[in-house]
Design goal:
single chain; alpha+beta; 5 helices; about 25% helix; globular
Length: about 160
């Protein structure tokens, strides 16, 4: 192999490594609705990342449940999200500048009144730092409540 060919291949590999693609970001689907949920107060673990997370769905029944909960005062909201976890923040599961290493799989979560204790926890201190994806696989923080519907813009 001559030096020019070697330089060409090295340059091609370097350019491929400089991709602008965010491999952790799913394409935001227009039919998805996004809801921010409370998690744990920062006093619980002393970490601000625990205060909220975002979940997405296109499931009409879940969307209606979220909207019904939002029509109530916060202290009267009783339902919390429970569902299967996926890797990465999926382009939307953030809390301020923090991008979670997980997300509730779209259309694979629901709002429930009861859930097994093994699924309970805080979004950051328990789910992210103890790697629920591999050990538990599902998340349903008992104290999580829908806070707001949010709109995300695709960059």
């Amino acid at each position: 192999m001559n030096i020019k060919t070697l330089i060409f291949f090295c340059a091609a590999l370097m350019m491929a490594g400089c991709s602008n693609d965010d491999g952790d970001k799913n394409k935001l689907e227009p039919e998805w609705r996004y809801f921010r949920f409370s998690s744990c107060p920062s006093e619980t673990h002393g970490r601000w990342q625990d205060s909220s997370f975002v979940a997405a769905t296109a499931n009409a029944a879940v969307i209606q449940q979220c909207l019904n909960q939002l029509s109530l005062p916060l202290e009267q909201r009783t339902l919390f999200p429970l569902g299967q976890l996926g890797e990465g923040y999926a382009g939307y599961n953030t809390n301020a500048s923090h991008q979670f290493s997980w997300h509730l799989i779209e259309n694979d979560w629901e709002l429930v009144e009861l859930g097994a204790e093994i699924y309970d926890g805080c979004a950051y201190s328990d789910v992210e730092l103890t790697n629920y994806i591999e050990s538990v696989g599902r998340y349903g923080g008992w104290g999580s409540r829908v806070l707001e519907e949010i709109t995300l813009d695709e960059d």
